[in-house]
Amino acid sequence: MTERWQIGMPPERRERSLAKSLRLVEGRRATRARRLRRGGSALLLVVPAALAYGVFVVRPILITMQYSFYDWNGVSESTWVGLENYARILTDSELFGPILHAFELIVYFSLVPVSLGLVAAAAIRKFATSRVAVVARVVLFLPQVIPLVAAGIMWTWLMSTDGLVNESLRLIGLGSVTRAWLGDFDTALPAVGVIGAWVSLGLCMVLMLAGMTKIDPALYEAARLDGAGPVREFFAITLPSVRQELGVCLTVTVISALASFDIIYISTQGGPGNSTLVPGLEIYYLAFFEREVGQASALAVVLMLLVLAVVLPLQRVARGRES
């Protein structure tokens, strides 16, 4: 069609049309070449990280999955047992109990610090320019700077029989409720949860405060003109505006609850009895003390799946409105 249309055209116009078509083709080729070069450069930047991820993350996960189908002590010849290790997790209370403890810790490691961090951030935002706000941010964020091992040792001293907690209770006349908080079957897990909440509070507060700084002050002024009080402002403006930050806080703290290890290892080592035993600590004991590498691998795979099953819906809910 183009050739037939150009036959009846004057020679000069035909040459201009051909030159324009050639320029368009060359421009498209140049654009395609630039895109390929950019894509190649981006691929070269991604390859080292992808290789490191594959070697240090994907490969260990696959090996762990392979070990989970065997009965192996880490030294001698392994024996294929299929899904027996997974079935034992569901039927053995000593293996299923730590999973329940991890879900109980979600209340202390996640819900408590996220709620308190949200309230603290909203309160600090009211007097953000004052020295009190600066001091409050530093004090609340300080636990994030302290190593978890040091935090565990410190709280072990504080909650001991003659620690600061019990001495304070005796000072105000509540000596009857004093106890070894980390050594009592009924209070050990909540006491560990208090340590986790104390550690996570600062991070949640800073994330929430960062989200609140992007809220337009005109929204609060309009709400006040409409007669809204502080509570109404919080639920109608502040809370919906920090939806993404709330999702990040919940994700990070839920993972820390399900995969907790260091604080519990330092403070209680899973005791008294197995009242504070969690999957991470149980995996450690199974693999390095009881030499049940296959069973430890199966519990590690179950823990990974539980984390994904909890975190992925949280991410979906947090990003639901934007999608």
From TrEMBL:
Residue ranges of every copy of the ABC transmembrane type-1 domain listed in the record: 99-314
Cellular component, GO annotation: plasma membrane
Key words of the record: Cell membrane, Membrane, Transmembrane, Transmembrane helix, Transport
Name of the molecule in the record: Carbohydrate ABC transporter membrane protein 1 (CUT1 family)
Subcellular localization: Cell membrane
Keyword ATP-binding attached: no
Transmembrane annotation, as ranges: 42-62, 105-124, 136-158, 188-210, 246-266, 296-314
PROSITE patterns the record matches: ABC_TM1 (PS50928)
Domain of life: Bacteria
Assigned protein family: Belongs to the binding-protein-dependent transport system permease family.
UniProt xrefs under InterPro entries: ABC_transporter_permease, MetI-like, MetI-like_sf
Membrane topology: Multi-pass membrane protein
Biological process annotations from GO: transmembrane transport
Primary site of residence: membrane
